[in-house]
Input
Amino acid sequence: MAASLDAAIFFWGSQTGSTALPICHNCTYHRYVKAIVAIPEALRVTLPTRNVENAEHGNSNIRNPLWRGTLVKIRKTLATTIASATLLVAWGTASAVSLELVADNTRSSSGTLSTQVFKACTPPSNTPATGCSTFSSGWAIANGVVGSTATWSWDGTTLTSSGTFQTTSHLSSNPFAPAVISDKTVDLTINTATMTTTATSYNCVEGNFLAGVGANGCLNTSLGGDFTDSSSAVYNVGGNATCVNRTLGGDDVSTGNPRGLVTRAAGGGCDATDGAYDLWTVVSDNTGSGGQLILSNGIDTALAGTHYMTFSVVPVPAAVWLFGSAIGLLGVARRRKVA
Output
């Protein structure tokens, strides 16, 4: 019992950064009382004042039945308080709102709205402009494109994803129409406060449409007179998701910077890139009331060149139950003490 409580005490201390944690390793009562003192007043279950004072002064004669009883009371109290406090720490850690990506939209240079394809839906669907696909087109199969597995959260300034997120632009937002380009990221994080975007990895996957009109969208090149794509790119150079090296080949001509995770200048062995995820503008945030979050690249969502993502809040009744359990533990402990 004591060993497990010691572990719990030190866990709580590591979460709170308290300096009032046990410092008297030879004084049983002092150790536990100090731990209780370190816990916020609102979370404590009151101990008998005299016992606390005696314990605080190091009267640790555990051969005395009175003190043995006091020790049991302290341990029971601490067990209840630590359990509740630990649950509340977990609640605070998980305070970021869980989100679901509803839509990933862009507008072309002509202003035409496109809904990117990124998810496998239930029931299976290839309905245009829904973001859904069965990923059974020849291009998708050849490039290993499947439904994204990323989960999302938002803490008020930072959008964080865990897992693989791949989103593809198709003509007419139809998953069976030719693909234009596809962005694939792992563990994407967008910080709107610092205007930075990071990821474990990023890759731009070329679709099967632009080659037919003599261009490559990921590389931002014209295929030249031979109409052959002779250029290439290496992503995640040196383990840096923002670092791209493009190599022009044949008679291909650069028409701009290659596509990358973020917009950046050349340097450090990396080429300048145009960013896929410079989404640092919070268009709207109603997540506090269970509504939606919309992030954009700073261009009005009704104008050409915009890119914006829309998220909805995922209900988390389990978290509410967990919080209720923590409060319930305190109530039970108090009732038992009164009894």
Residues 1-62, 87-93 have pLDDT under 50 and may be disordered.
